[in-house]
Structures are given as C-alpha cells and as structure tokens.
C-alpha cells in the first residue's frame, strides 16, 4: 500500500522587522515599499504570528512543507539571512521546499546578494529527480516525496515601482510541460508550487503573472493534480479542466497576518493529504485541513476541513 503523504502549504510570511536597509540598497522601489510597510503592513505582519504558525506546522508533522514565497519585504540581504534562520527552524532542506515571491526578488540593486543563493538548499531537485529524470539545476526543480512529485517554478522578477507582477518565461514553461508529462507517465501525484496566481484574471494586471495564459495552456494540456500559490493573501479554490482530469488550484492567506487587512484574513496555512494508489489513472483523493488564528493573540486552531477530489 502506498504511504499517505501530507504537504503543509504556507506563504507570504513577510518576516519582520525590515533590517539592513542602508544607502547601498536605496532606490525608488524600496523607498516606496518601505513607506507602504510603515503605512499599514507593519501592523499586519507580525513575526510572533509567523513563528506561531511555523510552530503549529511542525506539531502537525507533515511529510513535507511547501513555502510559496514572500519571506522578505524589500528583498534585502539581511532579510534573506533572517529568512534562512526561520526556514531552518521550520525544517531541514530535505523536508522544506521554497519558491521565491516578488518581495524576495524585489529589485535588481543587490550587489551580488540573492535569495536564490541564500535559500538554494530549499530550491533544488533531489537526487532521484536529478539522476532518474535528468532534471537540471535551476527552475523548475523536482522533489519526490513518496508518490508525490513536488515541482517548484520561479515567477519572481524585479519590477518597477507600483508593480508586483510575475513572469515565468518561455523556457521555464516549456520545461514545466516536460516535467508534468514525465510525472504523469510515471504515475506520480503532481503538485506545482508558484508564488503568483497561475491563471488569467486571478490578480490585477500590475500584480498578475504576465504569462498566465501560457501557463494555463500547459496545465490544460498536461494536467496536474494541485497547484499551490500565494501572493493574494486570500484563500481560493479553483478547478481548471484539463486533458487529464481537473487541476486543483489553491491559494492561501499570509502566514503572519495578525489583523484583517482589506479583504485579507488572519494568518492561515493548509495541510493537504493525498491518498493515491500510485498507478496511472488510479483515483486520487485530496483532503485539506486549514489551520490558523482568529485573533492576534489566539492559538492556531482548525478552521476548515474538506475533501477536494475532482469528479472529472
């Protein structure tokens, strides 16, 4: 019998405080970002809440943890180091996978620093994927967790002020299509990690994935079992029809939100449990539990429990 795999999904921790913002890294993008942080986000994203969520994730003992970006706020080297320490407490690199968000790759003015370097151990293919599938370095990367293939793609690119859009590029989308097809033939459950919402219309133009239409076409043609994303700081569940059954696309709120902001709820994360026979065309059952807080100083509790198995 194939062992049951559980993946915890958290996103957009926006770890506070912002530190290391010296003149060396000063530009208009970061100046405006800092002003926006102090205008409202500083009261929303609390480190204590992010730590509380992380502690609860560890207590649930998931098989693996998926983090879909925005650990930083202004894309500063000191923030990368802070996030590295937070990730280490969350779990070792072979149990935690990360993709960067737009706040992690925020500006081109980094003088050689990069979250892609600092968090590299959490963003590379495992030995099985490299040797069996010949997956190269960079994105997409693949990690096999039992009968689940976790596929990480990078939608984060530096953007001008007032823009938080993402972009995958033709090469990464083509490589993703290849990986999805090989994973389907192998009979593995395919879970894609991306920061930006993957489908057209899921975010305003200035915050959207610019090549969402191209990604949607790949998902429709190749299929996937689950796509995990962040960025919108809200909980969403969308079914996308594909040639190989419906694709479940799920977003999750921020993992550090201590107060409601606009239409964004307080901090949450999700646990996905996969029950699958491990063979091509075998039925897949996905159970989701959402855990989070209902008040800033409250404990993390179960907020929702549902079955998300597709009937198509």
Task: Give a structural overview.
The protein has 312 residues and is of the alpha/beta class. 26% of the residues lie in helices and 21% in strands. The chain has 7 helices and 12 strands. The model has no long low-confidence stretch (mean pLDDT 92). A hairpin with a 2-residue loop joins strand 4 and strand 5. The protein has helices at 28-44, 47-59, 77-90, 115-118, 127-132, 170-185, 212-222, and strands at residues 5-10, 64-67, 96-98, 141-145, 148-152, 189-193, 226-229, 236-240, 247-251, 268-276, 284-292, 301-307. The strands form 2 sheets. A 6-stranded mixed β-sheet has the order 3-2-1-10-11-12, with no helix packed on it. The longest helix is centred in the N-terminal third of the chain and has 17 residues, at 28-44.
Brief overview:
The protein has 312 residues and is an alpha/beta fold. It is built from 7 helices and 12 strands. The model has no long low-confidence stretch (mean pLDDT 92).
Secondary-structure topology with pairs:
Elements: E1 5-10, H1 28-44, H2 47-59, E2 64-67, H3 77-90, E3 96-98, H4 115-118, H5 127-132, E4 141-145, E5 148-152, H6 170-185, E6 189-193, H7 212-222, E7 226-229, E8 236-240, E9 247-251, E10 268-276, E11 284-292, E12 301-307
Parallel strand pairs: 1-2, 2-3, 5-6, 6-7, 7-9
Antiparallel strand pairs: 1-10, 4-5, 8-9, 10-11, 11-12
């Amino acid at each position: 019998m194939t062992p049951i795999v559980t993946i915890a999904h958290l996103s957009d921790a926006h770890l506070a405080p912002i530190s290391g913002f010296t003149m060396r890294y000063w530009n208009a993008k970061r100046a405006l970002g800092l002003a926006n942080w102090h205008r409202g986000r500083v009261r929303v994203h609390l480190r204590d809440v992010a730590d509380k969520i992380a502690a609860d994730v560890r207590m649930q003992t998931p098989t693996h943890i998926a983090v879909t970006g925005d650990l930083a706020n202004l894309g500063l080297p000191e923030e990368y180091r802070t996030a590295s320490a937070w990730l280490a407490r969350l779990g070792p690199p072979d149990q935690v996978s990360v993709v960067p968000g737009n706040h992690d790759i925020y500006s081109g003015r980094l003088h050689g620093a990069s979250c892609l370097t600092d968090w590299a151990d959490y963003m590379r293919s495992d030995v099985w994927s490299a040797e069996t599938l010949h997956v190269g370095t960079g994105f997409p990367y693949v990690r096999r967790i039992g009968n689940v293939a976790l596929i990480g793609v990078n939608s984060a690119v530096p953007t001008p002020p007032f823009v938080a859009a993402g972009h995958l590029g033709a090469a990464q989308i083509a490589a993703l299509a290849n990986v999805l097809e090989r994973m389907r033939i192998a009979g593995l459950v395919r879970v894609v990690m991306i920061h930006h919402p993957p489908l057209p219309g899921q975010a305003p133009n200035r915050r959207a994935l610019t090549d969402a239409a191209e990604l949607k076409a790949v998902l429709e043609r190749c299929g996937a079992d689950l796509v995990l994303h962040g960025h919108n700081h809200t909980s969403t569940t969308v079914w996308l029809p594909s040639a190989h059954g419906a694709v479940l696309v799920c977003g999750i709120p921020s993992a550090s939100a201590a107060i409601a902001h606009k239409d964004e709820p307080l901090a949450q994360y999700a646990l996905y449990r996969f029950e699958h026979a491990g063979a091509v065309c075998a039925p897949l059952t996905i159970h989701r539990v959402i855990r989070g807080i209902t008040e800033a100083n409250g404990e993390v509790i179960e907020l929702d429990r549902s079955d998300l198995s597709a009937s198509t």
